[in-house]
Amino acid sequence: MTNHWIDIKNSDCILIMGSNAAENHPISFKYVTQAMEKGAKLINVDPRFTRTSSKADIYTALRSGTDIAFLGGMIKYILENNLYNHEYTAAYTNAPFIVGEAYGFKDGLFAGYTKNEEGPSAGSYDKSKWAFEMDANGVPKLDRTLKNKKTVFQLMKEHYSRYDLDTVSKVTGTPKEDLIEVYKTYAATGKTGKAGTIMYAMGWTQHTVGTQNIRTMAMIQLMLGNMGVAGGGVNALRGESNVQGSTDHCLLWHIWPGYLKTPRASNNSLEAYNKKWTPKSQDPLSANWWQNYPKYSVSLLKSFFGKTATKDNQFGYNWLPKVDDGSVYSWFDIFDSMYKGDVKGFFAWGQNPACSGSNASKVRKSMEELDWMVNVNIFDNETGSFWKGPGTDASKIKTEVFMLPAAVSVEKEGSITNSGRWMQWRYQGPKPLGNSRPDGDIIMELGQRIKEAYKKGGGVFKDPIVNLKWDYETNGAYDPHKAAKEINGYFTKDVTVKGKLCKKGTLVPSFAWLQTDGSTSSGNWLYCNSYTEKGNMSARRSQQDAPNNIGLYPEFAWCWPVNRRIIYNRASVDPKGRPWDKKDWVIKFAGEEKDGKYVSKKWIGDVPDGGWYPLENPDGSKRKDSKHPFIMRKHGFGQIFGPGRADGPFPEHYEPLECPVEKNSFSSQMVNPTAVVYNTKADAHATCDPRFPFVGTTYRVSEHWQTGLMTRPQPWLMELQPNMFVEMSEELAKLRGIKNGERVNVTSARSSVECTAIVTKRFKPFKIGYATVHQVGVPWHYGWRWPATGTEESANLLTPSAGDPNTRIPETKAFMVNVTKL
Amino acid sequence: MKLDRRDFIKISGATAAGIAVSGLGFDLKQVKSHAGMLKTRYAKESTTICCYCAVGCGAIVHTSKRGDGRVMNIEGDPDHVINQGSLCSKGSSIKQLVENENRLTEPMYRAPYSDKWQTVSWDWALNNIADRVKKTRDESFEKTNAKGQTVNRTTKIASVGSAALDNEECWIYQSLMRSLGLVYIEHQARI
Question: pLDDT tens, B86-132?
């Protein structure tokens, strides 16, 4: 979230699309309700009428997988009716940038496309074709009037001119009058002083166009001046208590803690690595915050290897693994490789891939190819016990499995980070049950034993293992405070920074103090400031709000970066530093003024996104010592044109890999031309196939969580939601002769799952052109291990091995199925 | 009088609505206040953050100071600025997650081709895992790739997890995995 949960109350219009907040993030609705009590409008767009819909001022449905068409239509509406925020768009976004001559778009393809002959990626782009034009100083050329035909603004207008109401309605199945009502209501937040927010979740990410679903909305938020302001932003409702923190600390193949890049094989030295990934801007008004990259990478290496990381050994850079340039090592690729027998050892630590991975049959089958598996969890699960799952013969499965019992969160101490980036400390209540242990203890002890084995017995390339800093213990037990301090970082020698002597062994106050010479460590620069000499910031409990009284609660817990509660907040003020919204302001410039000029620097409210002077003085003269507000972008502007994405700088509608229509109404490119699709014999797909006539989607219920492993073994929650089910419209039930409560089979090209039919008015057939399209929904909370009957199985047995080209997140929200009586 | 859970919910719901004396003929006020005292007099209080979704609601854990030292009650934290005491159906049932007879309480091992689990000691389990890691890593370690570039990695070991770990655990876990040369490191955020 660019903003945070409480901030939703400051919104004037809340769009909930791609999520079902009322059921899946129930407490968030406290703030949706508060906003509505103050007059905010709630819009909900969802293929199914949910509890969120029941609270909405406006509800309408769309067919799964057509969000870009829906939102592309909104962009057209905003532009045609002149409803965008002119001042904000011209000042803070890249709408005035001039795009180079090489850019083009024709019939669904952007300039620079090449179809791939092999591998899971269907094709790729030469992104140099999408570059901006630069002036003689290497600064992007701008036309702030937005009239030049090559501006981002005009190209956007042209691109979305095709998204007319008729075509959008035909593709989405949403009635035209509903489209207009949603567009008009949301676009009203373009007015200065008004804020609109988006609450989305996996309903947007789990598509072959997932990233671009979100980008379309980000473009709308920028055009309407909704970024950086209270009650605005782009807000992903993350589904797991610490999925934000685990992402920040980068348990992901492509990034190192703090969103640094995993080194490529071609980055053959620390210097080459830093050079490659440190962006350069020639614009003195661009903060280009990532110019600090080497400070963060060197400090991270110091945290990895402690004293053994020295300037002479490039701080241990070459001890860490490199990935091949152009290769991808994602979830999909792990199981594809495992399926082919190329992975021998596997850790499933606090995760249940046998139910959570799309095309779960392939995932389960691949586990039979392993030599060994370590499964760490609170409960026995479908992953650890895969060898005795449905359809397996244990006597033919060679895999050794170690199943380790972990402690529950309340039995240990440490922090987690919520969706609003708040890091919050938890304390130990009871001791771990039986012989279970906190994950931290297990990790520490396993690390000790591996280190000992290499120290004693030698082994291949042992330096990184024996030199790994591994002292996060007190009295022989894992100490989360020591790890938390390492994440924050220390001064590793006496050093003078910003005119202040910083003593060796003291904690770094914030990432502005980090150095490139090894005199600082920091396990994650984004968390530098979270645990300082002043104490553990995440444990704070003050209920005092900030002076602007918008629910920032700056001394309750701690949030990254540097406790800034709303990021990009310098876009919440005009170029003179005055809030767009006078009432719910986030920050305001409070420096002294003399003769029409600012003469001293002071901001009040939230921690400003950089404390520079405003861009202009009160008399309108431009300042040379200011910075553009989008400081994490190379040029400092919000990106309406996104030249870094794999599938194009503007989002474009493509159909899901499996879809019910034979033609994409916007172009002759049926599916995202860069989508990722796997093709072993376990990866069947079927589109426009009469055997699978209905659109299928997955979702969640309030009473279960994710694969259900932390809810299915509980009596109360199981009593509330005991069965795997399929929800369908009354029309479809009639068509198939299915009665409410009957057991049915839901079948896709991959597999079949037995479900209890739930016949409701919440699904309605869609009118897609002249055709009627039915959609059904299945929750993905079940698996054979719990309940003990073994009959309630995972919805991911049905979902496909295909995904988004930027993230490789699977397309589990739109696929094709059949529903038949047992 | 014997009350089952549903009856109790009915009664306590009625008292919450302001009816002090229920139709059953006894005053629940005293029962409620005594119950309230139990958890403070005989329990240690600690704060926690809900382990389910990422709203980050606060809860208070009451752990028995006597007997088995287990959880007596978990409820919403009224002083937490986000949830102000509220919890959803899952958050309200965290006690059943902790105090649950289905939990794993011993390390277990499944041998190749076996059809059963056997209970093992932590010592045995961790030594054997360390041994497997070292063997697979050493046999598969790639110092250079097909182009001859230095890569120092293994693609024969993979790891998934976890958004269910604390921040500090995530950090030490990724550092251990990366020091071993793993590049197949993924978790819930990818799916």
Answer: 999 999 999 999 999 999 999 999 999 999 999 999 999 999 999 99
Neighbours of A493 (CB within 10 A): 14
Residue with tokens 């431009």: A622
Tokens of A574: 């005009």
A742 touches chain B (CB under 8 A): no
A377 three-state secondary structure: strand
User: How many alpha carbons fall within 13 Å on the CB side of residue A595?
Assistant: 0
Residue type, A257: P
**Optimal mutation site among B8, B47, B55, B73, interface A, most CBs of chain A within 10 A:** B55
- Mapped onto helix, strand or coil, the DSSP state of residue A426 is strand
Q: Contact, A637 vs A92, CB < 8 A?
A: yes
What is the amino acid identity at position A50? T
Cβ–Cβ < 8 Å for A64, A813: yes
Cα distance between residue A432 and residue A376, in whole Å: 14
A249 shares contact with chain B (CB less than 8 Å) = yes
Peptide bond into A561 cis (omega under 30): yes
**How many residues belong to chain A?**
822
pLDDT digits (tens, 9 = 90+) for A37-75: 999 999 999 999 999 999 999 999 999 999 999 999 999
**CA distance linking residue A678 with residue A569, whole number of Å:** 41
On the question of a cis peptide bond just before residue A464, with omega within 30 degrees of 0, the verdict is no
CA A436 – CA A445 distance, rounded (Å)? 14
Say yes or no: ipTM exceeds 0.90.
Answer: yes
CA distance B5 to chain A (A): 11
The reply to whether A460 touches chain B by the CB within 8 Å rule is yes
Contact between residue B180 and residue A469 where contact means Cβ atoms under 8 Å apart? no
Q: Which residue has the tokens 């655990």?
A: B169
- Residue type, position A531, single letter: Y
CB atoms within 10 A of CB A499: 5
